[in-house]
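User: Please go through the entry that follows and flag anything odd:
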Amino acid sequence: MPVLINKIRNSINLSSEAEQYIFYSKKEKGISRRNFNSKRSCCKQVFFYHLGSLRSFYINKEGKEHILQFAILNW
């Protein structure tokens, strides 16, 4: 979590109360390759990637893949 807090500090002034809220209310979670929200579902969470990368995409009715976004280091 220190990586996220430092990233936020680079953009805005962060009070100690806000820093503590972020630190205690959020958790780090490791995800394995090809195992992240692989089902057709809506993701209602916010993520911060500090290691690795993530590709978000969907496949249309014709089978064509459409990339929506890439999440890269410290995104």
Remarks:
- Residues 31-75 form one domain.
- The chain has a mean pLDDT of 77.
